[in-house]
Amino acid sequence: MRQSVIRLGVLASLLVPSLLLASPSRADDLNYSPTVPTSCTVDAPRIKVGERPRIEIEVAANTTTLLTGSVDLAIATRAGAGRALAGVVWTRTVRYEGEPRTVLGPRLPRGSYLVTMAFTPDDSAFVGCRNAGVFNVGGGETGGEEDPVPGNLPDTGGPSVLFLLVGGALCASGAGVLGWGRRRGDARDGG
Amino acid sequence: MSDTDLDAPDPETPGGTATTERVRRRRSRPEQETEQKSTGRRVTFWTGCGLIAAGIAVLCWVAWQFWGTNWQSERRQNEVRDAIGEGWESGQDVVRTEFGNATAIVRIPRFGPDYAMPVLEGSSDEVLAAGIGHMEDTADAGMEGNYVLAAHRVTHGEPFAEFPSLEPGDEVIVQTRAATYTYVLDSGGEDLIIPFTETWVLDEQPVNPDAGEINPPEGVSSLITLLTCSEIFHTDNRSVVFGHLVETTPTSG
């Protein structure tokens, strides 16, 4: 009898905490729906041919909870100057641990590319997010957003009038040389 | 000289000393001299042709700047406008395009009823070749501070081609995804011309260091400043107009 009471006591002591712990979690499961939206940011600066793009990714949400999850990255070529995607050339899945991070992409030939990110949160209370950004692999130029002459107002005018004058002067002098050569030849031939 | 006129007695004429005849004789050209002349002519000819070709190339480049870049930039502007429309529909405030981040569309009724130019962040050559540039570190559209926009007056699509025609009272309508902001200009397109080194126009509350010159309106928290080159060809001077915010209409409303 005493042993039975002890067994019941032990069983009860094991069951009560497990019930206490299980109840809220079951309630959460029943009432769950992801409600906290997240915001994805992906950026890759313009690079030269032969360089690897540094893809910067960031996920933000209006919460103090650390955002963790996985990020699916993909790079696709863009056909010409349009926005049509010609094909995915690179994919990678990386972990996101609450801090913005940089992922090194592949070496790519010259062209325009679209990098996309899709965030899948670990915590099902958050809603996943997606975003995309365009970057170019080009020649010697870099960047497309820096001020070319920092500290001054930008150059918004046409070409220098000097080019017009130089072009006109070259044409005129060329015509002059041709005319002079012809006159000289005529003088020699005709006396 | 290859030809020579000689006054000489004809040896075959009897009494040639008495009746001197004027004869023209042509001396045969030495081969070497002929070759030198031919080479000289060729050099002159090709030098002239080279100069003309160089001149035409330079003039073609100038023509490309004035017409070719406009054709190219108009396509880019259309592309950015389309991308803005698609981006706003999908919920993006800032739309990433091949030429930069686009944030707004500007309408200036003075420039025509169809005038709708995209605004991109920054003032790099690439940005200014695809629309209007929103100067770095200046206020956003509709916000407190100075919203500064710069664009080409000639070449690269010429968004501000009609800048000198702006007059006080003209409206500048800036549409973003969130709202449409209406500014009214306080100065005209030819009222203020400054050197490109005078960056006070980018200040949050610009104050003209030249007393008595054009200033933005006082006591206004949300300003707009438009700037472009003051001449057709390259110049160090910039034309500037100031305006202030008069109306904000949320897009959803």
From TrEMBL, chain A:
Protein name in UniProt: LPXTG cell wall anchor domain-containing protein
Residues of the signal peptide: 1-27
Natural source organism: Nocardioides caeni
Residue ranges of the TM segments: 161-181
Keywords annotated in UniProt: Membrane, Signal, Transmembrane, Transmembrane helix
Automatic annotation (TrEMBL), chain B:
Superkingdom per UniProt: Bacteria
Keywords: Hydrolase, Membrane, Transmembrane, Transmembrane helix
GO MF entry, a single one: hydrolase activity
Record-linked Pfam families: Sortase
SUPFAM superfamilies the UniProt entry points to: Sortase (SSF63817)
Residues making up the signal peptide according to the UniProt record: none
Transmembrane region(s): 43-67
Region ranges (Disordered): 1-40
Composition bias, Acidic residues: 1-10
Active site: H152 (proton donor/acceptor), C229 (acyl-thioester intermediate)
Compositionally biased spans, kind Basic and acidic residues: 29-38
CDD domains listed in its UniProt record: Sortase_E
Protein name: Class E sortase
